[in-house]
């Protein structure tokens, strides 16, 4: 008897539930009023003037000087009815005061939010006209990479993006772990097949160079299977994610030959040698399912 069947039979045999008399639900607590854009910028400016180690950049530090009043007007035009406080917290986390430096600027590309502390440096641009957010920069010290620090931050960001009507998140995957990590989050390269072909070719070259004079037929067979899968998946936007999983689970001889760490995909290091542009479409159920699974 299956588990589901046993569960259903248990429900059938269970005595009828006697429901208690209805009790009036307590009144819901009033939702706190969201800070206005002006209040948020004034608070940041005041915090910066305290001299406690927090710096607020009003506008672009490399551009023309901007006053808090000008920034308030510009940010209101970009955000409309949305709360700057909510957007900043969505990008940087609930406590932006924990950052050493925070910047807010507005130009023709949209609203720019920057933050830097001892564990993360980030820069994001929101363009309300195109409904696109661009992740310009996200860096974590190497000693803290792989600890899952970005996952709650990205969950918070996507929740905020959905609330303010963002439809797509774009980025350039590069630096230390980006080309591999962003694939794991569900981002799709603009040219997924070209990227897949590049890493498969690079892996094949590395494996053949490591074999020495005697061919390892098991490795050759694993490489042939991977190449065949790449061709079979042509046109599939998730070709890179699928190749990573295949290589992780089905290429033990190649992993041993190339001294890949247990649990890693043999393709990981080859993705890290690339740079690619791509995006996460918030209306794409498959992409969002991958994102939610990886960030839970």
Number of strands: 8
User: The biggest beta sheet, please?
Assistant: 8 strands, mixed
Q: Give the distance, in angstroms, between the N- and C-terminal Cα atoms.
A: 33 Å
Amount of helix: 40-55%
Number of helices: 12
- The low-confidence parts are 1-19
* Helix/strand order: HHEHHEEEEHEHEHHHHHEH
How many discrete domains? Answer: 2
Could you tell me the strand content as a percent range?
15-25%
- Secondary-structure class: alpha+beta
Q: What does it look like?
A:
With 296 residues, this protein is an alpha+beta fold. The protein contains twelve helices and eight strands. It has helices spanning 3-13, 37-49, 68-79, 84-92, 150-163, 178-184, 192-211, 217-232, 239-250, 252-257, 268-271, 285-295, and strands at 55-58, 101-107, 110-116, 121-127, 132-139, 168-173, 188-189, 276-281. The chain has an eight-stranded mixed sheet with strand order 1-2-3-4-5-6-8-7. Residues 1-19 have low confidence and may be disordered.
Brief digest:
The protein is an alpha+beta fold and 296 residues long.
